């Protein structure tokens, strides 16, 4: 992974691009942004997947009962296909609450 990361920037950017490619297999188009040793895969409203090159993590859409802090799902970067399946599931959940804008479909307002 480190040798490949030298070609694409940092280990974080490499891991983010692997996840982005895996999400593409699910029909999900993403954007990858990297800097300062981390990278983010922008998937949907309230769905950003962060990576430091070792793990992926994203908000699970839930809060802790006692502290009311956000709960996150975490996967190692060793298996981007498995992480992509979980991200795709969260993506489907979010699409119900945030439908695609008519402007993105090209529909008139």
Blueprint (SSEs and pairs):
Elements: H1 2-8, H2 11-24, E1 31-35, E2 38-44, E3 47-51, E4 55-63, E5 70-76, H3 80-97, H4 102-105
Antiparallel strand pairs: 1-2, 2-3, 3-4, 4-5
Helix pairs in contact: 1-2, 2-3
Descriptive terms for the model:
109 residues; alpha+beta; five-stranded antiparallel β-sheet; 4 helices; 5 strands; globular
- Helix amount, in percent? 25-40%
Characterize the main sheet: 5 strands, antiparallel
**Beta fraction of the residues?**
25-35%
Low-confidence stretches: 1-7
Count every helix, treating DSSP H or I runs of 4 or more residues as helices: 4
Shape: globular
Q: Radius of gyration, rounded?
A: 15 Å
Terminal-residue CA separation: 47 Å
List the secondary-structure elements in sequence, H or E. Answer: HHEEEEEHH
Q: Which structural category fits the helices and strands? A: alpha+beta
Strand order of the largest sheet: 1-2-3-4-5
Mean pLDDT: 88
Total count of strands: 5
Description of the molecule:
- By secondary structure, the protein is α+β, with helices and mostly antiparallel strands.
- The chain is 39% helix and 30% strand.
- It has 4 helices and 5 strands.
- It has helices at 2-8, 11-24, 80-97, 102-105, and strands at residues 31-35, 38-44, 47-51, 55-63, 70-76.
- It has a 5-stranded antiparallel β-sheet, with helices on one face.
- Helix 1 crosses helix 2 (11-24) and helix 2 packs across helix 3.
- The protein starts with a helix and ends with a helix.
- Residues 1-7 have low confidence and may be disordered.
């Amino acid at each position: 992974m480190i040798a490949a990361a030298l070609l694409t920037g940092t280990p974080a950017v490499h891991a983010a691009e692997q996840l982005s490619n895996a999400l593409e297999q699910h029909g999900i188009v993403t954007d990858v942004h990297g800097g300062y040793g981390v990278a983010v895969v922008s998937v949907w409203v309230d769905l950003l997947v962060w990576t430091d090159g070792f793990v992926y993590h994203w908000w699970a859409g839930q809060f802790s009962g006692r502290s009311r802090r956000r709960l996150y799902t975490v996967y190692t970067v060793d298996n981007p296909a498995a992480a992509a399946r979980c991200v795709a599931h969260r993506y489907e959940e979010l699409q119900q609450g945030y439908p695609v804008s008519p402007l993105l479909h090209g529909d008139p307002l």
